[in-house]
Design brief:
The protein is of the alpha+beta class. It is 16% helix and 38% strand. It has helices at residues 65-77, 128-131, 165-178, and strands spanning 18-29, 32-40, 51-52, 55-57, 85-89, 93-94, 99-108, 120-127, 137-145, 149-158, 161-163, 189-191. Strands 1, 2, 3, 4, 5, 6, 7 and 8 form an 8-stranded mixed β-sheet that branches. The protein is globular, with a radius of gyration of 16 Å.
Length: 199
């Protein structure tokens, strides 16, 4: 991964929805780049069981959204702020749960990370080489959604995990900015807004 193409400038605030931030941790393992994900606990009210990057809503104690991302990574998996080199960010994104999320990218050491069971069911470290493998990717176009209209949903299937939803959109952008991988022009299928998700 070439992280030099990531955005460096961070605007002061996000307009509109509740502010949130996530950290996409890049870990070098066995000479190859990996990304660390969390699998959200099943009892959570929003996006239970889904794969995500460590993160959450901004709190009054957070001076910046970078602070939010680092605090949440520490709380969720024990990733200490002083051991993270935040190298940039990707575009802000909105979620169905009314958040505006700023994703930061940081280089983290390769060590064991312990999930906080109140929020995180598992920690998964997935190889970038597997994420960019065409055999592990599929997408669909959902048409006629009452809020989002026609939109594309991305799925990355690696090591028994499926990364999709807003995190899938973040992964697409991160991979396109840091590797030679590009989203295929054609989707695998077109479905209506009520179709089951293939996860």
């Amino acid at each position: 991964m070439d992280l030099s193409g990531l955005r460096r400038h961070t605007p002061r605030s996000l307009a509109g929805r509740r502010e949130a931030a996530v950290l996409a941790p890049v870990i070098e393992r066995d000479g190859a780049a990996h990304l660390l994900f969390t699998k959200r606990a099943e009892h959570l009210g929003e996006h239970p069981g889904q794969m995500s990057f460590p993160g959450g809503g901004r709190e009054p104690i957070d001076r910046t959204l970078t602070d939010t991302a680092l605090r949440e990574a520490n709380e969720e998996v024990g990733m200490r702020p002083e051991e993270i080199d935040v190298v940039g960010r990707i575009d802000d994104t909105r979620t169905s749960s009314k958040y505006a999320v700023r994703p930061f990218v940081g280089v983290a050491p390769d060590r064991e990370y312990v999930p906080d069971e109140s929020e995180v069911a598992e920690v998964a470290v997935l190889a970038v080489d597997d994420l960019v493998d065409p055999a592990n990717y599929e997408s669909e176009r959902r048409i006629g959604h009452p809020e989002y209209g026609d939109h594309r949903v991305h799925y990355f299937h690696v090591d028994g995990y499926t990364v999709w939803g807003v995190t899938g959109r973040m992964v697409v952008q991160l991979l396109e900015r840091t590797t030679d991988w590009r989203v295929p022009e054609e989707v695998d299928r077109v479905v209506g807004p009520e179709a089951d998700f293939p996860v």
